[in-house]
Amino acid sequence: MASPKVAFHTLGCKVNYYETEALRGLFRREGFEPVDFSEKADVYVINTCTVTHLADRKSRQAVRRAKKRNPASIVAVIGCYPQVNPGAPAFLPEADIVAGTRERFMLPALVRRKLEGEDIAPQVSPYGQGALFEDLPWVPEQERTRAFLKIQDGCNQFCSFCIVPLARGPLRSLPLEKGMEYLREIGRSGYREVILTGIHLGLYGVDLDPPSSLASFLADAVKIPGIERIRLSSIEPADFHDELIRVIKENEKICRHLHIPLQSGDDGILKKMGRPYDTAFYTGLLKRLREGLPDLAVSTDIIVGFPGEEEEQFLQSYSYIKESGFSRLHVFKFSPRRGTRAAEMGNQVLPEVKEKRSRRLLELGEELSRTFQERFLGRKLTVLFEKELEEGTGKVCSDLGAPPVPGRDYRLSEGLTSNYLRVRALTPGNWRGKMGEVLIEKSFQGYLQGTLVNS
Which of 296, 370, 383, 455 is most deeply buried (CB count within 10 A of its CB)? Predict the structure, then answer.
């Protein structure tokens, strides 16, 4: 009998992507055959997001696409959307299994029971104090060159706009020893880079007994053999204590890219958001981080159209963002989420105003990214190549203005630098998973191009 086929679709943050990869591994171990979401499968797993109304809509659309692709399939809807929407089964009739953000390791067993004809009740339960970290085991994925590892979950901050604490529960951390065990396995599996993820990553370890910290985790992680880069996902501004900054600066293995959410460049809006800092604090943090790290890339999140944001406050925010020299902007239009304080605030901004402001910031983001990229023209950068875009010596070399070398099979390969610049270069053969020095020669929207100098 053929193995049942399972397909996955993920929306939202890097934590969701890690959890999907872990579930893929669990299903494979239970005898399922993972296939692409575009294929006909026996089981579809949709790992949802609910941070905005758009995320909700995309989650529902993915569910309907799956059921349309194979009406006889089992569709499992998991994650943040059902966790904060207890009525999800009623308005997702295509869903055969509904589960929140807890105890997802049971999902393969639930699917097996459903395949055998059993009705499965919604698996959604609220979080309480004392909730445990869900240790979905790390599993290697051979088609990837970078490994994700979730070491923290949950958030206690309750910003006025954010539904995440309700979707993810209180702060929880992976024990330090278990984290090092996973990192050693990642290093042995041949991965050159690992991305550490979490919902409130900067507070890693505060809930452990004895307490630990992200700085302590990193100090041990950089010693793991085989891993040449450690990349951090989003860290809150208030979590950059002196020890964390010191560890980042003293260890070149830690990638020179930090994602630090700002959300607004206006102090009045930051206060209404419930953010525990102002722009003066954020400016001081940028200065501390950039001292001694001139090539550091800092990207950020921005929300436009927060309740009460007048044009003057938007312009103040715009000016602050422009002056801060970010390498990339992630722009979100404010979306009221039921259960948050901001959803009940007056002076809600009109949708057309949000759209206009969003477009302006997206254009600014492109300008800032281009400015940051162009700083590296004429310089050599180390690139971890992760995929091929084209192959075929003649056409690829001709398009790039490079003479082909007889007997060499050139590919157009793409990868990332430590500071999250996307770089393309000709490589002699398949360089996926390899690192090389590239002399940067041209800048395009979204990527740099150059010549591999150590082939």
Answer: 383
Other beta carbons within 10 angstroms of residue 217's beta carbon come to 24
CA angle 387, 384, 331 (to 5 degrees): 80
Q: How many CA atoms lie within 13 A of 178 on its CB side?
A: 15
Q: What does the block give as tokens for 354?
A: 């949000």
CA distance 152 to 357: 33
H/E run at residue 288: helix 279-290
CB 63 within 8 A of CB 37: no
- pLDDT tens column, 260-285: 999 999 999 999 999 999 999 999 99
Choose between 105 and 235: higher pLDDT: 235
| Tokens at 199, concatenated | 């919902």
Nearest CA-CA partner of 442 in 415, 424, 416, 420: 424
Contact indicator for 96, 119 with CB cutoff of 8 Å: no
Tell whether the model's pLDDT for residue 398 goes beyond 80. no
Residues forming beta bridges with residue 5, ordered by sequence position: 33
Using 50, 70 and 90 to split pLDDT, how confident is the model at 143? low
